[in-house]
Amino acid sequence: MTDILFKLPEIYSNAKQLCERISKQEMQCEYEITETTGVTENCLVFGNNLNYMKYLIDRGMSGKINMIYSDPPFFSKSDYSINVKAGSGKRKMVIARNPAFSDKWKNGMEEYLTEITAALMLMHELLDERGSIFVHLDWHSTHYIKVIMDAVFGEKNFINEIIWNYKSGGVSKKYFARKHDTILFYSKSRDYFFEPQQEKSYNRGLKPYRFKGVKEYKDTVGWYTLVNMKDVWQIDMVGRTSSERTGYATQKPEALIKRILTSVTKEGDLCADFYCGSGTLGAVCHKMGRRYILCDSGVPAVTAAHKRLLELKSAHAFMSETPALSDNFCADISIDRIEGLYDSVTAAITGISYRDLELPGIALENSDLMETLIDNHYDQLIEYWCVDCDYDGKVFRPDIYRFSSAGMIDVAVEIPVSMVKNLTIRVVDKFGNVFQKSGIRV
User: Fold this and answer.
1) Is-contact 126 68, C-beta < 8 A?
2) Angle at 265 between CA 264 and CA 268, to 5 degrees
3) What domains can be seen in the chain, in order of their start residue?
4) What rounded mean pLDDT belongs to the chain?
């Protein structure tokens, strides 16, 4: 790795060639909307981010994105997984480990930097002239990515090296505890949009200065003034009991993304995250009135992000490069007679079968428990499910959702008969598998 600095020109050239290969017909991908909750100005995409960014460029999106937040792999040389748990409350048990993503690179740092550089080149093309990009890294590769971003975005467009300081993380007796990440902040041009934020600066001794023309304030700690925010941010990581916790590996706190969006975007701006993980950017954009584009190639990531956005009732389209559905589950409906009339339909899930369904890469921790769940408590394997009362066979437009909470989920729902035309049920389990049963008619 010591000679990487001398290989940077070659890495840059290889990244350009990678972008050119993506442009060729054999590497182009088509993306279809497979599910929507009413609008397409926000979208979540399951697929390779390089392919998808080129897809956007080919469809006239160059220079249209106001802000990009990028949280790529850090070159940690580790594999990340999600513990799949079943049960309720304190009785939850781990039944499997579902791979989230791998941060191991066969050809080492050179391969890693080539892919990240190609992604940065495509992001530069998509970014608005007044837009900005924040690349989230740590000590493993920040020094190399900084040099590459100087080349892609221009050294003069470097704005800040932000230090995100937090309490959690490992400790060692051989070095100082590593308790921060680095976020590189660049603009597309010198005419970039920025709204400075303010923070408290406590007076020495916490006493009032009483300087002429200086506004001072007092809280329970003591006296302070307001100053422009510094580039060292103390923000807690997502705690184990936090309401925003999804369980996804490497999830970032909403407070961190909110600070970025507040500083460089306005209401209605379009923001993107092409390594979206559990969808934190989308969640914060929804709450702050921004539009969003999210993309990830990991099934656990898009499963977590999709559920999160649905629970927030954030209208978006779901697009997939390689949609895969299974019908290995049982669903049924019954008609409830009320006062002699057929007034409502009960749609219910009556079972899930994994007998003929492969679970690639998933390591079962408790096979006996898994068998018991399949046979008797299949509902504990469901992450969420939804119903489209009039499925057109192409785009799933759900009318009703049911989400897992504290290990519990309703597996039946009543629907007015007047809504039902071509009823379809779609189920997503805790492994990210998608099951569907169509053509249920009344």
Assistant:
1) yes
2) 175
3) 4-193+231-320 (3.40.50.150), 196-229 (no CATH), 329-440 (2.60.40)
4) 89
Residue 436 pLDDT:
86
pLDDT in the model for residue 246: 87
In three-state form (DSSP H/G/I as H, E/B as E, the rest C), the secondary structure along the chain is CCCHHHHHHHHHHHHHHHHHHHHCHHHCCCCEEEEECCCCCCEEEECCHHHHHHHHHHCCCCCCEEEEEECCCCCCCCEEEEEEEECCHHHCEEEEEEEEEECCCCCHHHHHHHHHHHHHHHHHHHEEEEEEEEEEECCCCHHHHHHHHHHHHCHHHEEEEEEEECCCCCCCCCCCCCCEEEEEEEECCCCCCCCCCEEEEECHHHCCCCCCCCCCEECCCCEEEEEECCCEEECCCCCCCCCCCCCCCCCCCHHHHHHHHHHHCCCCCEEEECCCCCCHHHHHHHHHCCEEEEEECCHHHHHHHHHHHHHCCCCCEEEECCCCCECCEEEEEEEEEECCEEEEEEEEEEEECCCCCCCCCCEECCHHHHHHHHHHCHHHHEEEEEEECECCCCCECCCEEEECECCECCCEEEEEHHHCCEEEEEEEECCCCEEEEEEECC
Given a cut of 80, whether residue 168 has pLDDT beyond it is no
pLDDT per position as a tens digit, 56-109: 999 999 999 999 999 999 999 999 998 888 876 667 788 888 889 999 999 999
> Both tokens of residue 326?
């299974």
Cβ contact 54:28 at 8 Å: yes
